[in-house]
Structures are given as C-alpha cells and as structure tokens.
Design a protein that fits this description.
Number of helices: 2
Structural class: mainly beta
CATH superfamily of the largest domain: predicted glycosyltransferase like domains
Largest sheet: 6 strands, antiparallel, barrel
CATH topology of the largest domain: Thrombin, subunit H
Strand content: 35-45%
Shape: elongated
Radius of gyration: 22 Å
Distance between the termini: 30 Å
CATH class of the largest domain: Mainly Beta
C-alpha cells in the first residue's frame, strides 16, 4: 500500500494513532464511523471503516475529521481524506493530517487500575499500605483506609510496574465515595513522574481498546 507525501511541508509534526488503533471518522453532518488504522507513515494514514456503510461522497470526505485517543486526550485531525480504490470503499486514506484540537486533557482521563501505593499521613507518623481503585493524571482513588480525613495532606509512593521506581509526591484527601474510599488529589509531583503516569494511563487505554477490538473480531 503506497502513500503520497503531504504537500504542506511547513506543517508542524503531529502525533498520529498507531497501527491497529481504533479511531472514529466523523462527517460534517455528524455521522460517526468506527475504524481501525491499517497503515501509517510520518504524514499519512490508511484506516478501514469497521461497519457496513454506504459510499462516502466527496463533500463528506472533504469535511471529515478523524478522532482518536492521544497522549493529551481525545485528539481531532483534519487532512486530505480520499478513497483511492473504488473497489475498497471502506478504506480511507488521510494525507497531511493536522491537529484541530484536543477534546479533553489526559489528566482528566481516569482508568480502573489496582496498583500498590504507600501513603504517609499524620506528619509521616502513620504509614499506610493500600492500593488504587482508579488512577488519573490528577490523583487516584484509594481502596482504604477509612481513617484518612477529608482535607488531610499525605505523601505517597505509587508503584506502576514492579521493579520500576515509584511515582512519588504529595496530595490531599478531597472526597470519599459511597463505599468510603478516599480520593487523593495531587499537590506536588515532578514533571518526570507525571509524564510516566500519563504514559502508563495512555498505554492502559490503548491495551483496552486493542483487547476490545480483538474480542469484537472473534464475536465475543
């Protein structure tokens, strides 16, 4: 499968979805079609629409937007959309994609993930071993304990991957849920650790999307 080069050589590099990632194609009229990335180069994409559909018109292709989960959140791309082979009307090529906007910042994306966390409370006098229920770029929900008070400041060491150094920082207990679990919002965390956390969340979401795609392919 061959691609043409983008004519807009002055465009800034833009993050693109990976091969086999699930994306969404949106037409100007608001129709949305799930698709999967078949091929990608530095400035081109080929995506296959995953549902039976009618042929897309030139006007629809001209106003089309591709949406996907990027590192900062749900990104939207425009570019030159075309169907190069009439015998494959469900395969769309995008040349010279450029970013339109980001619909939500990654720090607001929350994933369910049980990860060990060590919490220091009471001026470091109390050491609590627990685990997360979910994680975001701005904090996490703790499975316990119920002794932490709303407004209490804590230090934490969050282990994302066994053998790797922990994510460290400080936070504050900001709320409890209906089951008494404590939500901790970050106050201080290094840029390096925050980038590690964002990458972890991003990879977890990517894994879930791929798992869902495989399950759909096998009819599960």
């Amino acid at each position: 499968m061959k691609f043409g080069r983008s004519k807009n050589e002055s465009s800034k590099p833009v993050a693109l979805p990976e091969r086999y990632d699930t994306v969404t194609l949106a037409t100007p009229s608001g129709e949305r079609f799930p698709a999967r990335v078949l091929e990608r180069t530095e400035d081109t994409l080929a995506v296959a629409i995953l549902v039976p559909m009618r042929s897309l018109s030139g006007r629809e292709l001209a106003g089309m937007v591709l949406e996907f989960e990027g590192e900062r959140g749900r990104a939207r791309l425009r570019g030159a959309f075309e169907i190069p082979d009439a015998s494959e009307p469900d395969v769309v090529h995008v040349t010279g994609p450029y970013s339109v906007d980001v619909l939500q910042e990654r720090e607001f994306v929350r994933i369910k993930s049980a990860r060990p966390v060590l919490v220091y409370a009471g001026g470091d006098s109390l050491q609590i071993r627990s685990y997360t229920v979910d994680i975001s770029g701005g904090g996490f929900l703790l499975a316990g304990p119920d002794t932490l008070k709303i407004g209490e400041e804590v230090k934490f060491q969050l282990t994302l991957t066994p053998g790797d150094s922990a994510i460290v920082g400080t936070g504050k207990v900001v709320r409890t849920d209906s089951r008494g679990r404590r939500a901790v919002s970050f106050d201080t965390i290094s840029d390096f650790d925050h980038r590690r956390l964002v990458r972890f969340i991003f990879e977890c979401q990517r894994t879930e999307r791929r798992r869902g795609l495989m399950e759909d392919s096998y009819g599960s």
